[in-house]
Amino acid sequence: MTPSIGPGLVLPDGFLMGASTSAHQVEGNNVSSDWWALENRQGSFVAERSGDAADSFHRWPQDMDLLSELGFNAYRFSIEWARVEPERGHVSRAAVEHYRAMVRGALERGLTPVVTLHHFTSPRWFSELGGWTSPESADLFATYAGTAAEILGEGVRYAATINEPNMIALMHTLLRHAARRADGDPGSTAGGDHGGAAAFGPGAIEPDAEVTRALIRAHRAASAVLKAADPALRIGWTIANQVYQAEPGAEETAAVYAWPREDVFLEAAREDDWIGVQAYTRHRIGPDGPLPVPQDADTTLTGWEIYPEALGEAVRHTARVVGPHVPILVTENGIATGDDDLRIAYTTSALASLASAMRDGVDVRGYLHWSALDNYEWGSYRPTFGLIAVDPHTFAREPKASARWLGSLARAGRIPCPPAAAPAGVSSAG
Ligand code: BGC
């Protein structure tokens, strides 16, 4: 049974409603990437390998057919640097053609492609040079962006340079700690966001500052290259919004905590054409730092508190930090669950919180659900985020009820919205 959406908010013309994936999580056999190397290293901390993933490298036409038949008008996917440039300076023409065909394929099906250049994975050779800590990283990424421009030139309007740079920078710190622990340093701590218990204060697990600066440089260098190739292209990056909530008296602590983990990356987007918001849950901050998820809270398959209102709070926070002149695309929002009714209930509330922020004037231009498909969740196939189920042996796709429900909202151009008097100028349909 799908919930009634009440009066609903009529979406502005051109609003993008769709779903997201990333190359490594759905394509399969991304063998030239650093993540593939990590997964397949002996004694790796990565529990499960990506393997064939959802075989979308071959089955992308079917994925796009399904999304468009379901009623969506947008698809966010990423192009894989490790396929486009499997060795430094060697561009695979076949990979470029592959992704150009994907862009054309999306457009032919009425799906606006939102294309990410880097979604967590890098070519193995890039990591071996030191990855984002290499002094050459911004130049190397900008060179790749020059090649990617050829793909985007097929008709892409929205491109993202780097997905969740804040998580990449945090990951660097975690990997450094893991390496130190492996070397027998007992003082090395570990933790993380998205529900993990992060440390605060001296020695805190926080995004690596050098990597943060390198990512901002790389984002700007790539944006300049892409803009020079196509001045009409709208370029942004997508940030993991952690929805830090200060407990009474902890406002100052929360602001200090949020800066290196999120706000520095949002501020860096002030000159961009758009900003991607990715929100799943909240993180409560007390006077001494982050608080654990309450014992009695309902949680998802990733252990995150079920808190759909995170989405509305994330777009409001982003608009406050970046400024009202930068439009927002929600590039990820969803829930890891095997219970599809719960997915619908969560998304209903998330969309209602989004609608309420839009009604208050936040400029949101699209909503892309994470994820289009059940996919590889960075070390495990167990947390299922997909609107479409994928059989791991036959790769057969089966849209879930949530896919049909969300597709029908996309078709109707209307999302759930809590009843409230709409301020002048914003339409709320009855
Ligand atoms: C990432 C996705 C990931 C999702 C759920 C985001 O952090 O961009 O790759 O699968 O969240 O964890």
TrEMBL record:
Broad class of enzyme this protein falls into: hydrolase
SUPFAM superfamilies: (Trans)glycosidases
Keyword Hydrolase: yes
UniProt EC number: 3.2.1.21
Active site: E332 (nucleophile)
Any GO CC annotation of this UniProt entry: cytosol
Keywords: Glycosidase, Hydrolase
Region (Disordered): 182-203
Single GO MF descriptor: beta-glucosidase activity
GO annotation (BP), single: carbohydrate catabolic process
Similarity field: Belongs to the glycosyl hydrolase 1 family.
Official protein name in the record: beta-glucosidase
Organism whose genome encodes this protein: Streptomyces jeddahensis
Taxonomic classification: Bacteria, Bacillati, Actinomycetota, Actinomycetes, Kitasatosporales
